[in-house]
Amino acid sequence: MRVFLDTNILMESITNRSHSTEIARIYSLYKSGVIDCYISQGSFYTITYLVEAYLKKTDSLSKDERLNKLRNILNNILLMSDICDISNEELNKGIWDTNFTDIEDSYQYQNAIAEQCEYLITLNKKDFHPRNEQIEIVTPDEFIKRISSGL
């Protein structure tokens, strides 16, 4: 089963916020081979920026320690997910898809479709208005409930 993770899912996990338990369960499903996880290149760049800013703000680490921690976090993301390419055609679809008011979400959606993912997991489900029956937009909790009932 192919699962696309929105950027907010990764940040929720990294910063140990309210949905981190469900996201840890999703990663357990990945480790056990039940699902394959995908993220966009754009998410990876964004996460690098956001985590670095988060570490600067919240940790009293030296610059070298902070950089090492950032590298470890990014490496773990690479170990837990595949990074998807997005073509100019898919970006163009994302730009002009009038079902979306947040174009970045439209890029994520187009990326998930191109990777033939069955689920796109996000915390801002209301911003996604899918027209493709191939993919279901779900929250982490909804995904865990669906996958648990199917196993």
Q: What would you say this structure looks like, in words?
A:
This protein is of the alpha/beta class. The protein has helices at 7-14, 20-31, 41-58, 63-80, 88-96, 103-114, 140-150; strands at residues 2-5, 36-40, 82-84, 119-121, 136-138. It has a five-stranded parallel sheet. The longest helix is centred in the first third of the chain and has 18 residues, at 41-58. The two termini are 12 Å apart.
Features:
151 residues; alpha/beta; five-stranded parallel β-sheet; 7 helices; 58% helix; 12% strand
Mean pLDDT, all residues: 91
Helix/strand order, N-terminal first:
EHHEHHEHHEEH
Helix content range: 55-70%
Q: Taking strands numbered 1, 2, ... along the chain, how are they ordered across the largest sheet?
A: 3-2-1-4-5
By DSSP, the count of extended strands is: 5
**How far is it from the N-terminal to the C-terminal residue, by CA?**
12 Å
Low-pLDDT stretches = none
The helix count comes to: 7
Beta-strand percentage range = 5-15%
Class by helix and strand content?
alpha/beta
Radius of gyration: 16 Å
Name the shape in a single word: globular
Summarize the biggest pleated sheet: 5 strands, parallel
Question: Could you write a compact summary of the structure shown?
Answer:
The protein is an alpha/beta fold.
